[in-house]
Amino acid sequence: MTTGTETGTEALRRLLTVPGPMASVYFDLDPRPEMALDAEARWHGLCRHLARQGAGPADLDALTRRFLSSRPGSGVLAAFAAGGEVVHSVLLPGCEQRDLALVAPLPRLLPLLAWRQEYPAHVVAVVDRTGADLRLYPTGATEGVGRTVIGADDEIERNRPGGRSQMRYQHRAEDSWEHNAATVAEALGTALAEVDAHVLMLAGDVRARQYLTKHLPAWVHHEVSIRPVSGSRSPDGAWPQRTAQVRTETRRAGLDETSALLVRLDGGRSPLGPTVEGVYATVRALADGALRTLLLSDGLVGHRTAWFGPGPTDIADQPASLPADLSPVKQADLADIAVRSALLTGADVRVLPPDTHGAPAQGIGGLTRYR
Fold first, then answer.
1. Residue-by-residue DSSP string for 208-226
2. 303-323 pLDDT tens trace
3. At residue 210, does pLDDT exceed 60?
4. What domains are defined for the chain?
């Protein structure tokens, strides 16, 4: 069983390979003491709903144990059970998903994916003239991994007695600042690449940030959004403000990514462009393994079904479109099947709110790899 904040793509791919049927649960863990009895009543109601859909006692017992172990807590518990055990669970802080309980051939991942979009991979760097404190956040992570970078040069003070040596001391100190900044810049490039981040939050000494920006790798300047936040490496009391700023900028970065994808989708709407949209064209692209990014409206859930087989590209909007000797072939919600095919073929998934301006036709579409 996997727990914690594991919402990475590899974890979701492993979940998608577990044989169904799968019980998917999203449950709001309200931390207020006065809501404790209400939470228990809601949970038992959710279990009864799962039982009516065919969930077995072993799955319900496993889910209930996971629910009890998560209390006290806050956020939304996302848990998935099959074969009498919870095969994946994660707490989603700040998630606004309402209680959901579903038994289906595939896990319901759209709420988790929509939450994850608000936490794109990023790195926070707080710098001074000696080095930096870094914090690395992979996609979907709410707790970062800390790392400290110390420059090799310790001649950082330029305040010396006046006279002929004053300029020499000043130049030596500034050379040290720049050498240390170059060390930090190299470490930052490595950190950004490590978590595949395209967002850098930068705080700290103004001069150190200037030198750092100068020495950042060229690809960082071209591919990474650098966003200033407040505070310094000294215990100045600014960390609560910086934490709030980082959360705001992270959410904004997620929205910017969605906007950029919609712009690319619109720009690719031509006969030779990379855009596909509508059920038929998107399912065909997934069946060909040609989709780079799937865009999917969560308003599509529950309105269309499709068919899938054992392979990642075994997907069709009609069962007759799959090979006659393919087995087993199952029917499920189109959104769940499309997400499965996309993730297992290496495509990204972007969940769109209903009525998003510029969304693909019929609530489903994407960008292909080859055009």
1. HHHHHHHHS-HHHHHH-EE
2. 999 999 999 999 999 998 999
3. yes
4. 9-116 (3.30.960), 122-255 (3.30.420.60), 268-368 (3.30.1330.30)
